[in-house]
Prior knowledge:
The chain has helices at residues 28-48, 58-80, 86-93, 102-125, 127-147, 151-165, 167-179, 186-203, 205-208; strands at 4-12, 18-26. It is mainly α. Strands 1-2 form a two-stranded antiparallel ribbon. Strand 1 and strand 2 (18-26) form a beta hairpin.
Amino acid sequence: MARLNIQQHNNSNRGGKTLSKEVATPEPEAVLGEEEALGGQETWKWDADPNNPYNWPTKWKVQQVLMIASAAFTTSLGVSILSPAHSQFMEEFGVGSTVAILPLSLYVFALALGPVVGGPLSETFGRYPIYIGSAILGSAFTLGVGLSNTFTAVCVLRFFAGLCFATPLAIAAGTINETFRPASRAIPSTIFILTPFLGPGIGQVPILIP
Length: 210
């Protein structure tokens, strides 16, 4: 029950006598305490809610880690997988050695620009639509590279493919922070950090295939 402040108001009547009037007003601290109590109760319910990612089953969390790790791997794989086609670009499109590196350079340049676009979009529309949308669009642009008949088309499509595939790299850390409690983030973070380094090495494998 809120405590009451007694406020004295002195009024003079016609006979010169003083009357006292008591006015009861609730203290602000009491109301604030009730609001804080309600807020604390709501916070406690969310901490115990099974829909909270912190409370997801382990298999769901593993799926999250595998998803972002595979996205990081394929993104870095796209950097070097086109290197074996360097001489083929020169022969098929009649370009010099320096120009033939342009599809690779544009892809890497787009990887730097992708987080600038993908990060804010994930905060606006959620991470799941951005993961799915970037994977679909990036795959479509990559398919277009394989079907292109001009060097210009190859360069343009490679740029947009890198722009799309860069998005998971920008929002993966946020996914880990929202899925795992601070004490459990070491292993998933290590897996995510290591997978991008595998892509460039495996991307060179086609050179060894006769």
